[in-house]
Amino acid sequence: MSNELILASQNICELNKVPKSYRNITSLNLKNNSLKDLGEIGQFKKLKKLNLQDNQIAEIEEVINKLKSIKTLEEISLEGNPVIRNTFNFASKLIIGLENIKMVNSQRITKEGREKAIARVQREEQQWRQIIKKHMEIIKEKGFLLGERRGVDDFDANEYRKSKERKLIARYLCSCP
């Protein structure tokens, strides 16, 4: 049996369990399907190369959590997926989350590139902590300005919910490990 499984353009929308004879593949091509998540990808323990181009994968956390158990994975392609648009510093987060990855979307990852990715994500996290702290202070102030003795958890912040930054803060909070 070949070490490569090509399932490109097969209208696949779920990745379920496969027979054991297919689990030892080293290359899996799922390009141009309808995958929204990685389902049972963890069954391919010897996978080195994974092509997920042009699917509907949207969540970086799900990608990292499903793939970090595949210690042999070196190459991944996610071009054409919403996860790239939805995730600030997408490649950096993927590089940090998947320690053995050597290539992301056809771009080779060097030691220097990995170090820059770590620094970039750390800077981003620090900026988000500052933004969140500022917004929490505003919420506390507004709650007290209303003359009420309620905590931040009880604060009805309709104005805050409407702010553009709120969505970004929510996305960041949901993406923290």
Could you please describe the fold and organization of this structure?
There is one protein chain. The protein is of the alpha/beta class and 177 residues long. 41% of the residues lie in helices and 9% in strands. The chain has helices spanning 60-67, 82-86, 90-97, 111-145, 158-162, 164-175; strands at 4-6, 27-29, 49-51, 75-77, 103-104, 107-108. The chain has a six-stranded mixed sheet with strand order 1-2-3-4-5-6, covered by helices on one side. A hairpin with a 2-residue loop joins strand 5 and strand 6 (107-108). Helix 1 (60-67) packs parallel to helix 3. The chain is elongated and about 60 Å long.
Count of DSSP strands: 6
pLDDT averaged residue by residue: 81
Biggest sheet statistics: 6 strands, mixed
**Backbone shape:** elongated
Note poorly predicted spans. Answer: 145-162
Helical percent range? Answer: 40-55%
* Largest sheet, spatial ordering of strands: 1-2-3-4-5-6
Classification by helices and strands: alpha/beta
Radius of gyration: 20 Å
First-to-last CA distance: 39 Å
Give the H and E element order. Answer: EEEHEHHEEHHH
**Helix run count:** 6
Question: How much β-strand is present in the residues?
Answer: 5-15%
In short:
With 177 residues, the chain is α/β, with parallel strands linked by helices. It is built from 6 helices and 6 strands, in the order E-E-E-H-E-H-H-E-E-H-H-H.
